[in-house]
TrEMBL record:
GO MF term list: ATP binding; ATP hydrolysis activity
Entry-linked InterPro entries: AAA+_ATPase, ABC_transporter-like_ATP-bd, ABC_transporter-like_CS, ABC_transporter_ATP-binding, P-loop_NTPase
Pfam families: ABC_tran
Ribosomal protein in keyword set: no
Taxonomic classification: Bacteria, Pseudomonadati, Pseudomonadota, Gammaproteobacteria, Oceanospirillales
Top-level taxonomic group: Bacteria
Keywords, sorted A to Z: ATP-binding, Nucleotide-binding, Transport
Protein name, as recorded: ABC-2 type transport system ATP-binding protein
């Protein structure tokens, strides 16, 4: 749906915000662009949407060059900014209809109605924006971006500064849009958001894309698992018969921790070996649990590794 090739951006004054970025966004996916403050997320989105000119490289949207065929490329894109900048006294219906007009599309009240209904704003269509709650205002931003029937939707930090309940509501809205066939690109600081929503994840750091990966593959590849065995009787030391397993004794001798790579077949088959050896030395296990590293652990280690 979107192809970014060799994209660089150096701002006047010499700061290079994007460094030779290559990226492909697939039709119908939710792609999360994850990165620390100042990494270049907004700059990248602005260049893709044709709002900021690149210093080098090119972008196509469904095959249309976003500079040479700007109008065609831009018409395919809906952009959801963080803040509502519309007139507070305008009604929901008017502000959303007006957004459609900006793209030169003929009036289509039936489409506006569908958009408002899908975002549960229909009942509020005659309300002025200042009469809406924070969550409704966020949904108006999405409705405005969808008014001209775009195929791609960019959400710039859709849940920045919103409470947990509203965040969940936004996630649900975004998922429904994806189910309707809209390709979604969101930027976020919240790793939980990427973990919850994304099909694929791109990590950007100092203007460079350091990784693009399917979320599940990423978590399998880079994730580690820990198996903790809680013992009936505490130990002073790991029994010699078990030293080959690389166990750590924790919780004042009450627990043994076994770390392994979640993706490795070899390692997981060694778990049965470990359990058999535990049995052989007569250790009684009271309880056990496993923990897999989260996207947050992976992200922190990625950013630290390259710091
Ligand atoms: N118009 C500009 N002129 C000069 N430098 C700029 C300009 N716009 C952005 N930058 C710089 O480019 C870098 C990337 O900024 P950008 O807004 O893309 O980051 P971001 O990843 O969106 O950050 P955040 O998560 O904080 O929103 C920053 O160092 C910023 O100061």
């Amino acid at each position: 749906m979107i192809r970014v090739e060799g994209l660089s951006k150096t701002f006047r004054g010499g700061f290079q915000a994007l460094v030779d970025v290559d990226l492909e966004i697939r039709r119908g996916e939710i792609f999360a662009l994850l990165g620390p403050n100042g990494a270049g997320k907004t700059t990248l989105i602005s260049v893709i949407c044709g709002l900021v000119n690149p210093s080098a490289g090119r972008v196509t949207v469904d095959g249309y060059d976003n500079l040479r065929e700007y109008r065609k490329a831009r018409a395919l894109i809906g952009l959801v900014p963080q803040e509502l900048t519309s007139e507070a006294f305008t009604t929901v219906w008017d502000t959303v209809s007006f957004s459609r007009g900006l793209f030169g599309k003929p009036k289509d009240p039936a489409h506006i109605e569908r958009v408002l209904r899908s975002l549960t704003l229909w009942e509020k269509r005659d309300n002025r924006l200042l009469q809406l709650s924070g969550g409704m205002k966020r949904r108006v931003l999405i409705a405005k971006a969808l008014a001209h029937e775009p195929q791609v939707l960019f959400l710039d930090e859709p849940t920045a500064g919103v409470d947990v309940a509203l965040r969940r509501e936004m996630w649900e809205v975004v998922r429904q849009l994806r189910d309707q066939g809209v390709t979604i690109i969101l930027t976020t600081h919240y790793i939980e958001e990427a973990e919850e929503m994304a099909d694929r994840i791109g990590v950007i750091r100092r203007g460079e894309i350091v990784l693009v990966e399917n979320k599940h593959a990423l978590m399998r590849k880079l994730g580690n698992k820990e198996l903790t065995l809680h013992l009936h009787e505490p130990l002073d030391a790991v029994p010699t018969a078990l030293t080959g397993h690389g166990l750590a004794l924790t919780d004042e001798g009450h627990a043994l921790v076994y770390s392994y790579n979640a993706a490795s077949q070899e390692e997981s088959s060694s778990i049965s070996g470990l359990l058999a050896d535990l049995e052989a030395v007569g250790l009684r296990v009271k309880d056990l649990h496993t923990r897999q590293s989260s996207l947050e652990d992976i992200f922190v280690s990625l950013v630290q590794e390259r710091a």
